[in-house]
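Pasting as-is:
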Amino acid sequence: MTQITVTVYQRKRQAQLEWATVGLGARTLRRVGKSPTKIQRGLADELRKSIRNMSPMEVAALELVRGRRLRRVHLELTVADRKRVSGRFPLVLEPRWRRPGERVVIAYHPLLGDQFFLVDEDADLAEQAKRFFAHVWRELDEVFVTEQLVTDGKDLLRAFSFSERAPQLIDEIVPEADPFADLEVDPDRGKRKKKRKKKKHGRKQLRAIGENVTARVADGVAPLGRPREPWRSQLAQLLNGPRKQPVVLLGPPGVGKSTLLHRWVSDLLEADDYAAHRNLDRAHEVWRLSATRVLAGMSYVGDWEKRCVELTHEAADPRVVLWVDDLHTFGTAGRSRQSERSLADFFRGPVARGEVTMIGEATPAQWHRLQEHAPAFADRFTTLRVTPTDAAETLQLLLHEARELEPAREVAFRPEVYRAVMQLGETLHPGTARPGVAVDLLRRLAADAAFSADGWTELDADAVVGFLARRTGLPEVLLRPDASLDPAALEDAFRQHVLGQDEAVRAAVDLVARIRAGLTDPERPFATYLFTGPTGTGKTQMAKALAGFLYGDESRLVRVDMGEMTGPESVARLIGDRYDPRGLLTDAVRQQPFSVVLLDEVEKAHPAVLQLLLQLLDEGRLTDAGGAVTDFRRAVIVMTSNLGARPRASVGFGERADAVLREVDRAVRDFFPPELFNRIDRVVPFAPLTPEIAELVCEKELAQLLARRGLTDRRVFVFPHPDAVKRMAADAFDARDGARSVKRHLEATVGALLSDELARGSRAEMRMARVYAADDGYRLHVDELIEAEPEEARYELEGLLHEPASVLNRLLPRMLARVRDLSESAEVEALAERVGALVAELGGGDPEVARTLYALDRFRAELRALRDDLELRTSANRDVERELSVDAVRERREPWGWRGGPSKMKRLDRRHVRPPSAALSREELLRRAGEIALLERAVHRLGDAREHRVLLELLRVGQGRRPPRYDRAPDGLFEWLAELYTGLRGDVLAASARRPDGSILTLEEPLELGALLAAHPNHLVLELHGVAMRTFLEGEQGCHVWSSLLSGAEIVRVRLADAESCEDVLHEHDRSARAFERALQERRGEGLPEDPARLLPAVRRLRFDPPTRPGESSLLEVEDYVTGQVMVESVRRIPDALRALTWLRASRARGAS
């Protein structure tokens, strides 16, 4: 075999590499990919095919030419259609020998090797190239030249080698014909001739079902970690010699078995001197396989044996090593009902004879399972036991890993990150050993930060907690040691989900507190609860609530119906069997270890299933049929039972609840064997529902019905009358079925009523319906929402909303001129006279006079401050422009090189010349322009005291959103609008809000507004003071509609109220609402008074799905019906975009209707 070294031209195309052979002329080969090793192997395979048809002289032309180099020149050429092309072009300069002793240099483009010219080394290379390519490329397309032939300066020449039997001159000698070639018997020996078989070369099967680990290590994409002794030396001793030994690494998950093997592959490449020759054909090949891949697609008897024969033939090369991922499954893999032969039976012989070198990794439990199924095969392997690292060594490995991650991921780890990674990683993943549990978490943290942010990011302990909270679903309050947990608030949150079950709520809060304090047994599940009681009392709902709080989503509930596990084969369904080792229970928890496992109606399970639960409840783990261990130590086990719940109507009404609970407790103790009952942490009784609780259940189920997608997608918001709810509860509740009877009744009555309403349809964009009781059932009162009519007005900011700050900055002189004109206008002079008159009236004690005087004086102060600011910034910008216009550009010439030739250089750069004051942002410039337009329009109304004090009312009239997470406050349109209006302009002097339970909160300090919104009010009134506040906010009156694919829809009505205080607005709304509901009930929808929650015309509609991760952005679509504006932007939160639209409304031209 001959080593052939080939030169290639490499350049980057977006995220991929492109290689092209150099010096082959018309036979140039090109290949594109992400992995250099794969590109190299592909080019080598194509060259091998070509070499078989080449002459010895042509093969010699492939060899690396010493002195070949790459140069880049700047050219300006004219191509097809007289298009001008300018750019840097790569040239390969290659020495050639014209005759012995006479050396010349040729030049050509690396992608067009058959077009070359002789180089005059004493002349300008760029001029020679320009003359040659101007003629040769005159017919080329402009796009082809600019996209394919121009370089970005990041290209290079590199070489690679491969081995192949090259043709020789002796091969061209035709051998003499054998006169006995056609005979079957050799006349000299008198025996039948043996036909020689051609040896098969290649790696067809290995490439089809395996992964070339050697290539991954050569590419630098495999994790090598820090070298660890003594295992590194032991692997080298066993596997680097002429006769390699089968080796298996034993240790718990995360101990570093795979990393040690990757490091051994790297050492093997170093021993093969790969860095010097760069020829993978001369290096050992380590292929990674698995039993699953070997058996994939093998349907008939004998198929996988045939594949293994080919695999054994390919792996017989002493330079090939097979790395098996799931070596422990070889004892059963391949067995079927037709054959008992396994992969271990097949490979036992080749491994024992040394024909195949096999290495692997397994846990001690998995290796023990292989020894049980195939002891003869397991005995062929030398076992190396890898032990977990201690804290000090783990820290060293983390620091080594961090040094590689920081430049690659553009992150910086603070010192406290390593401690948080080690502690939280081991706490949340007890089944994974060190150092893997910490190193893997550090890698994932860096990858997540690199994906979420642009540029360098500094990561601290809070970043670790946030990442783990998103990954596991656990609330941050359980992960932060310094976070506080309010048990009372947590009880309220659980009571909203499970009604009338105080004992169950206390059990759930106690579980959360124990997890928070770290007092749970680390070798068992978080908790094992048995929920007992009659059907329909909330047992399943409590399991969902636990999944929602502990793991972030109710979908983290793994539910197993034990009523289906009544036969002896049920154990195999749960943990798998020899033919399908993936069990129903073990596979679900292995995919999501952070979950609530609900074993529903456990009393119906087969006794063998109950015996299986002993291991689960005691050790927190189950071993499936394939030998894989599933860890349940970060799960909550919930079993439900209806034992002792007698199906009779008196339960919960005529019979005492405590008697029922005693009967349930006695039945549970009689059923469960003592060894299983003693492993249950807590038996949680669920009491029968009472009529009072039934009404609350009815409200909850009705709310879920009214928030379904069919209503929210059509923007239909339904509110039930209190009397209607009471009637539903009385008609629907059946003690024997609990809450399920309520669901059936609501589906049959309210659900049918709403279906008829939706079927009739409406042309209205949105509707609000009220359900009230009638003699013959229930009725609907529907109020339609229409879009507001657009105003026929001109808005001064209409064409500037999407302009950058650099364009808006040019408007500063015009803004200054308008402010000066306004300051000198007749209206302002009249206001000055009015101020003097009001000062004389101030002694009368009239509060209206005082407020008007304060507003006028504040107007003059703001106008003066605005003028001074604009004058300062306008003069500063003028000085900068003057500096930049004087001799700002000069010409320079660099020496010969890839940047050679004349170029223009700026003497002053705008990035380094700043005005004396900080530059205004785009939002600040829009705000100043809108403020000027607002003051111009409102100047004639400034004498009215009502103009400067407003009561802004926000009413949530429709909401179809999902309930928020327990540890996270809701963030919806109501909260966004409150933040918007309190942060735009003016001062917040007072605020009052009504909670969902009807109580009123009043705050006198504006700094406490966040605390008021934290109470999740549905009705908020803000007292705002400022110049021309009424003119500024009057355009915001109406309904604001937010729709989201994930969160449903929400309608918030905004109105300027007329009252003395914020509380008066709330009280008046409450009185009017009670009167309207009473009239609705009594008059059956006829002659009704005005609805205080009536829908005003929709002024703005928003479509926005909030980002799921901090710091991310989402697409926001806004339709402003009043201004006629449609805006699409990528924002993090809605107020970021609504500020500009609000100032747009404020910029309505003076005198517009």
